[in-house]
Fold these 2 entries.
Entry 1:
Amino acid sequence: MSPLLSISRRTRRTPFTDRVTAAGVTGYTVYNHMLLPTVFKSITEDYRHLKSAVQVWDVSCERQVEIRGPQAAELVQMLTPRDLSEMRIGQCRYIPIVDETGGMLNDPVAVKLDEDRYWVSIADSDLLFWVKALALGFRMAVDVFEPDVSPLAIQGPLADELAARVFGDEVRKIRFFDFRTFTFNGAELAVARSGYSKQGGFEVYVEGGRHGEPLWDALFEAGRDLDVRAGCPNLIERIEAGLLSYGSDMTRANTPHECGLGRFCDTRLAIGCVGRDALLRVAREGPLKQIRYLEIEGDPVPSCPEPWAVTVEGEPAGQITSAAWSPDFEANLAIGMIVRDWWDQGTKVLVHTPAGPRTARIREKPWL
Amino acid sequence: MSPLLSISRRTRRTPFTDRVTAAGVTGYTVYNHMLLPTVFKSITEDYRHLKSAVQVWDVSCERQVEIRGPQAAELVQMLTPRDLSEMRIGQCRYIPIVDETGGMLNDPVAVKLDEDRYWVSIADSDLLFWVKALALGFRMAVDVFEPDVSPLAIQGPLADELAARVFGDEVRKIRFFDFRTFTFNGAELAVARSGYSKQGGFEVYVEGGRHGEPLWDALFEAGRDLDVRAGCPNLIERIEAGLLSYGSDMTRANTPHECGLGRFCDTRLAIGCVGRDALLRVAREGPLKQIRYLEIEGDPVPSCPEPWAVTVEGEPAGQITSAAWSPDFEANLAIGMIVRDWWDQGTKVLVHTPAGPRTARIREKPWL
């Protein structure tokens, strides 16, 4: 049985919380000290709708770390092993961020607003503290703060149609991980083609909480015949899509290479980011374990609130950190960290679920 | 109606979660990415029991930032405006931590384990990121990490009796905010006289998750005739006691002086902590608003999930951030930030609650 969530100012409400409540949210998590919906009707019903229509998601908890000033670009590059020298205004980049030993601190999306102004749209850790202290320690000419920006996602196969009705047809031309600015309610809002699903869609960076409810209402008004509904990142769909969750599938203990994010680490690492020395070592030796996808045999397993051990012939072979029954694939799909000896496609392993040990097979790629 | 909390690896379980579940927890919050119980029977029933017997609290979410190495003391002093030059091994100190502009980042308790080894027992923000980045930026000879330490609190008027039965009578001699080390289950555990209530008691720093359930079980076995129960920080009692909640009653926007923590800021500030320059300015001018306690007239008000405006004759006079009906004081008690013109004892203000505007009176001290 799920317990109730006690809400206080500390578990911050968002500009959309009243609308989300009216739409019948039934489950929440707390993400960056803020409410993030997890369920409306049921995870399965939300899933079917997400994959067939269009949803509006309150992802305000993707808080922004704004970095502004003459050394903004220099500081952003110091934060990540990904080479950002070619990044242009109007682009977004997924940037793993590591500490000095190469341990993952966050896996945010950087948004280049101007030559001297960035947002870093964060996963669930107080990256603001890391960036502020680095700026202080290295005496950089930047201002670092959390602006009043609350992303609202439009996700699903009908997302382009819905967004075009509200922002105009120009929105269809936005390329993946680019953003363009649109006027809504008298405000200039950045709209990016991005989101935490593989169903397509946008994230609107709602700058100024007062624009939240008007935008929400405009989307629902415009999308009535599209069966637009309130939704949220969906556990089943994000596992099908192989989208990792920082804090669940990876933690500070993991390197980007273990997370399958080695391709975002510039092999020359000439860029002098924090963690460079450790990551050069890691890149040379390769990881000893890595994120893999698994199909677990048998009846539906429960979700995975704490890691499940994976073994092969009684020996430790890794752990599962996310799992769900997929109606579309008619199988239990899972994400886990698997040791090198057993991580090849098709390898048979044993997963120790609360429903008992189950046979599972390794996949190198996700399902979507 | 409270929504359900969705639990994942990201909302970390604790060494005590199975025991807490068996004890009938009904409400949780998420604190430092970890489960923190908020309700067992009801907030009022839990409150009456806390004030009359003894409870065991899973406060594992008070995570530790361990700072170890030749420059550990130097770094801890850099973190806080409180003068720690007289702090001895075996002592705990409440240390406000601010950024370079004097904004509160956390209000943890520092625990001095050795001359070159400290724990910082944190409120709800990733202080680890701040400390690690400062250590990196200022190139300090320290190791900074989150150890496997999960505090378990013993709180209530019978706490001394219960703790003595498990740890021996020596535990009674521990002075407020001191700690001593006791052997339990073959491990050396630090036991401090501290806790987030005014009912008296201890916090046991359970180092090594495997000692969690044996300690929990030993406390319940030893305390059967004391009516020991599982409990948690109680909203009503902590407001009566005037205990602030970081993230609710104070945020990064506030200085220590606004939070009534000016007495922890060394007026000379010769110690060169982060934020020194800003706090010297603040100390000279005094805060424009400050934490106050209020009694709100009329029927019980609901709890305060987002700030309630406070006005005087239609003018903004501050905000309420925590509120609860107190059965013992037969009144609505509240904590808020009140502007200088209206913060004197006895001043009448108007609080805009969801149940309508209510008259309230300012208090300079809490109730317990």
Note: Chain B has a mean pLDDT of 97.
Entry 2:
Amino acid sequence: MIAIIAGGTGSVKLVRGLARLQDAAVIANVGDNIWLHGLYVCPDVDTVVYGLGGMLDEERGWGVKGDTFSFLDQAKKSGVDAWFALGDRDLAMHVLRTQMLARGRTLTQVTAHFAKAYGIRSRILPASDDETFTIISTDAGDMHLQEFWVKNACRPKVKGVRYSGIKSARATSQVLDAIKSADRIVIAPGNPVSSIGPTLAIKGVKKALARRRKDVVAVSPLIGRQAVSGPAVKYMATLGIEASPAGVAEFYSDVAGSVVIDSRDAGTSARIRRLGVEVHETNITMRTRSDEVRLGRYLLRKSAN
Amino acid sequence: MIAIIAGGTGSVKLVRGLARLQDAAVIANVGDNIWLHGLYVCPDVDTVVYGLGGMLDEERGWGVKGDTFSFLDQAKKSGVDAWFALGDRDLAMHVLRTQMLARGRTLTQVTAHFAKAYGIRSRILPASDDETFTIISTDAGDMHLQEFWVKNACRPKVKGVRYSGIKSARATSQVLDAIKSADRIVIAPGNPVSSIGPTLAIKGVKKALARRRKDVVAVSPLIGRQAVSGPAVKYMATLGIEASPAGVAEFYSDVAGSVVIDSRDAGTSARIRRLGVEVHETNITMRTRSDEVRLGRYLLRKSAN
């Protein structure tokens, strides 16, 4: 069994590739969860669900393929600030999940319900059943990650990032068990601050990963200084993380014994090894399904060494 | 100002006709409200809102014109019994309303918000801000009106009808004020049991109407023994109401000093008059917008006598 720490649209391709090859437990970021219109929206969890369920909108990288946006249009006509693009199919997830949570089921249970309904064989495990939100401090004030990214289009100047509620958030037993019992653990390519960082910041996760350090491999979300997708670079600098494969390797060095970087970044490998982190170089770009499986195979082979 | 007691798809045509002619307060049935997927759905209130907002789906008689049903389809795929046809635009109403109610606003305030957003000049007043549900007792057990009508397609044998929560439900001050201060009051053509009855059953409404009896006119929802729309006849018999214009007149005789029946039912007028109820005969079929205004004009003229 392989455990994958995932978050954001960047992760889902590798998650899909690995899930085709092996029994997988996907530990999904909950730091970008947000309450919208009274509904509990979990973008990263849902991206994994839709990705593995074969219904992800591939072009946008989020939401359901072929979705309509009638709800959103009507909400705007109803005098409400509807700034987050909730599709109508996507809304089924949010409405039904909110009801199930209100009835006392955990986010883990709710996610398992949908995974089963959509015929997904991998386990999808929200990193925590508790609420923790990624808050971006900017020159326009503090705001939720989604508010910064979607509503304000990343325009305000970032001054810092914090995870609200993180002190009382607990990793689920399923997550800790998956980390403990997995043959190998992959940190998928995702923003270290906003997609992977919130999971690592949850009490117990870092310690559990550190114990498995030699079996943990992190895949760089950067090629050179460019994010493969998303606004990774913007947040990294503010947290003092160098926006480079070496910066990522250093950020993960306590928990990941090895990293996979793009062949084009081979020049940085010696520097990474000096951090005590093993390096593998390969083509990490995933454009097609066979790219996803190819990188997945590479990871299984390398981490089996 | 005219007050209109309305409920169901049958009422909305006359509501629209009257609202074109005069300042109107529409008192809408809340007895068919229902909690679905954690959302508070108010079909009759919404039919009035959509009707007056020019966005009602005229063919179906409910929901929003040109709506999509992606949410519903996805909910079904998500392993949930989604038997009530919630359109995606319609869903905006339910989601946003549920959130506003959770934040402590009343159904009256929420309805006013939407009416304003949709440019509606008439006031739309839910009969009560409290929850009261029309329950149909059948040979398959007790069920909510919508469950009987939509989920079970009116198949179970009806044994009785009751309004749960009706003892603690209160008419709003806005409703009682509208009845008190209106120049005339129209009971729109709607099912006496399931569309109008729940409003009359709310404490205070019948008494307030009885005080205005000579200014209250009820429009028959039946032509002969056939409902103009909906399953009126089915419920009426079980409550001992004769399914005929005379039966309707008798049911309303405590509160309505006059009724309007179809010219084809003129043969029954003498019998109605013996109940102490004045009768007006005209063409009550409304197929077009000008039919709606024609019947509206007729009512204003007759009730001004």
Note: Chain B is about 40% helix and 20% strand.
